[in-house]
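Quick illustration, no need to memorize.
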Amino acid sequence: MIKKYVCLVGAMALLTACSSTHEPQSTPLSENDSVPSWVFLPKHEQGLASSSCVMWTGNMAASRAQAIANARADLATQINTKAMVMDKLVNEQTQQNNKTQTSSNFAQVSKQVAQQNLVGSTPEEVVFARIDDQKQLCVLVVMKDTKVVFDKLLEQSGKNLDPNDEVALYSEFRAQKTMEQLEAELSSHKQLN
């Protein structure tokens, strides 16, 4: 009788264990995504910042290099866009003061200046993130000293600015604006001209 009782208890325990096993629950994609905030809003207090994510290939060196290259390309675009805004601001100031001066050419030298300074940009963060339910490697690249970039733009453009104008222009260059804001600023300046 005890053998039957032990067998019955063992069978019940086995059945209970089997019935309590849950199938994995799938979660909605939005809850499955895990991305650091700096991926969407890269910023640095004293410099320029950019982030980039690439599909994880299983090769850290290749994925990391690709993500860093993409982020640096974005930094170059930011420098170019800021240089175009500088051109517009200096040209408007010249027109308002009725000065006869050739138009500014910060944008013309911005690619060269960007290439010279991108070497100094450094990856600050490197993380794995899940985006669209796919594993990606994300990097945050920062160019810490914007004053060096600004000074080189000013030097290579050949512009001699009043010290007050230079301070104001550098303040505009340093402003933490998104690319959308900078492009909107350019568009509004183009419409005024």
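Confidence is low (pLDDT under 50) at residues 4-29.
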